[in-house]
Amino acid sequence: MKTVAQMSEEAVRLTQYIEGLPEGADITYDTVREELGIKMNTIGKNKLRQAIERCRREYTNIRNVGYQLADPGNSMAILSTRLQRIDQTVKRADKSQVIIYDDFYDRLPPEQQKAVVFLGATFGAIRVAAESGKRVYGRQGTRVLAPAQTLDVMHTT
Question: Which domain does 122 fall in, by range?
Fold first, then answer.
């Protein structure tokens, strides 16, 4: 078990490491493990992500590999991904509002009935804004994947 001082020391090392990286740099879990000696288990990966955020750097996740810091070339893709996530979350909230409206509306006190209707309208407005944003700035089916050498297992001959 690590002490609080050891955990804080890892956070400081990660922050210093990230501060020294240029825009668009790839931060792989393997590199962090080798260069900084920090385990890249779930806790280590969370610390790495928190350190990136602490440095006020935007990033995109490279699934099972690490992160890529934002640069002018990937900035719109990062924002489009954030917009998609907002839309997905609001879709789920909208479904919840409809279910609650259908199941409990008539049994709610008047002020809560107003709130349920108001939240439904709010979710609708957010969805309209997100849909129009996706049309203007939406991603064209792009997805950040691991580098080709890690995908060789999928190669068939």
Answer: 75-137
CA-angle at 26, arms to 23 and 28, nearest 5°: 150
Residue 111 domain flag: yes
Instruction: Using the Cα atoms of residue 43, residue 44, residue 49 and residue 52 in order, give the sign of their dihedral.
Output: positive
90 shares its domain with 133? yes
Q: pTM value?
A: 0.70
CA distance 123 to 97: 9
pLDDT tens per residue across all 157 residues of the chain: 556 666 689 999 999 999 999 999 999 999 999 999 999 999 999 999 999 999 999 999 999 999 999 999 999 989 888 888 888 999 999 999 999 999 999 999 999 999 999 999 999 999 888 888 777 776 554 455 455 444 444 444 4
